[in-house]
Amino acid sequence: MDRKKLVNESIDYIMQHLDGELSFDTVAAHFYISKYHFSRIFKEETGESVYSFIKRCKVDQSAIDMKLNPMKAITDIGLDYGYSASNYSSIFRKHHNTSPSVFRQSIPTQSMSVPFTPERVVHFKTAEEYDTHIEVQELNDLFVLYERFIGNYVEIEKHWYQL
């Protein structure tokens, strides 16, 4: 398997298993590759270690969960992603430069302006409302071409047209 394909598939695997027992070792084992070799490839291709990537994705996903489940306790959300109550708050603060409780209150849960077109506003529903509209369908096979952006999404506007 070529390096880019390995990294892309490993990122997909990580994203699908964020809420489970996910570690650097389990990802490398899933792809039947030495963890040391995998670590070097991942770091060279993404500029970030596998451990840092997993940690960042878990914190980012927990922030989304926090917004979608406003009645769920912050400590429970942290526990869902493998953090202890005290550890989650400090990691979240380090990553987002604010505490989880301030973050939860900072952006209205019901709506948010669209990046690049701030005059447009997207309105959100609760997780329960989204669940009521989910329909599972079997589709014919499709050929999909995609480009994955690896890097800091804070600067995505600068890189948008490269995609």
UniProtKB/TrEMBL annotation:
In terms of SMART domains, this protein maps to: HTH_ARAC
For this protein, the record's InterPro entries field holds: Homeodomain-like_sf (IPR009057), HTH_AraC (IPR018060), HTH_AraC-typ_CS (IPR018062), MarA-like (IPR050959)
Q: Which Pfam families does the record cross-reference, listed alphabetically? A: HTH_18
Coiled coil stretches, renumbered: none
Q: Which GO terms describe its molecular function?
A: DNA-binding transcription factor activity; sequence-specific DNA binding
Does the entry feature the keyword Transcription regulation, yes or no? yes
Where does the HTH araC/xylS-type domain lie? 8-106
Q: Does the keyword S-adenosyl-L-methionine apply?
A: no
Any idea which UniProt keywords this protein has? DNA-binding, Transcription, Transcription regulation
Highest taxon of the source?
Bacteria
The record's section on PANTHER family has: ARAC-FAMILY TRANSCRIPTIONAL REGULATOR (PTHR47504:SF6), RIGHT ORIGIN-BINDING PROTEIN (PTHR47504)
Q: What is this protein called?
A: Transcriptional regulator, AraC family
